[in-house]
Amino acid sequence: MSDLTAVLDERLAAWRRDTPGCQGRIHLNNAGASFSPLTVVETELAHFRREQEIGGYEAADEAAGRLRELNINTSAATNEDGSPVPVVRVSPHYYNTREEVDTLVDAIEALIQEERR
Q1: Cβ(107)–Cβ(92) under 8 Å?
Q2: What are phi and psi of 76, to 5 degrees?
Q3: Which residues pair with 75 in a beta bridge?
Q4: Torsion of CA 98, 99, 103, 104, to 10 degrees
Q5: In sequence order, what are the beta bridge partners of 89?
Q6: Pairing of the two strands 75-78 and 84-89
Q7: Secondary structure element (H or E) that encloses residue 89, with its range
Q8: Distances in Å between the alpha carbon of 107 and those of 5, 43, 66, 95?
Q9: Nearest to 21 by CA among 9, 37, 10
Q10: How far, in whole angstroms, is CA 64 from its chain's centroid?
Q11: 15-19, 53-57, 89-93, 111-115: which is most confident
Q12: pLDDT tens digits, residue range 51-84?
């Protein structure tokens, strides 16, 4: 086993440990409804709480600003009339490098830690 394979195997194992739905099963029905890792659930809950404190659009702007500081780009969806949809989407497509995806994951983990303080 190469060093890279060992690192990737451990990262995958860590993701599975952080995703309760993956414990004891292989879930293949994940096209649009995959299990969420605890870090994602915690981040979503923290964001929803922040929305209640300052408002939805303000919380989205705040989160996008923190990600922009880390050079992570996000985009907000819009309705046909141009009004914003309260969603922030990050798309890790094939052209993202492993380092870019790792940067995103690390930034999300940092945001979770910040929300816990």
Answers
A1: no
A2: -105, 140
A3: 89
A4: -20
A5: 75
A6: antiparallel
A7: strand 84-89
A8: 24, 11, 9, 19
A9: 37
A10: 12
A11: 53-57
A12: 999 998 899 888 888 888 877 766 656 778 877 6
> In this structure, which amino acid lies at residue 25?
R
Neighbours of 74 (CB within 10 A): 16
The structure tokens listed for 116 are 């816990």
Predicted pLDDT of residue 54: 95
Return d(Cα 17, Cα 14) in angstroms, integer.
5
Nearest-angstrom CA–CA distance, 4 and 9: 8
Q: Where are the domains of the chain?
A: 1-35, 37-116
Q: What is the dihedral of CA 14, 17, 20, 22, to 10 degrees?
A: 80
Tens-place pLDDT, residues 39-51: 888 888 999 999 9
Amino acid at 37: P
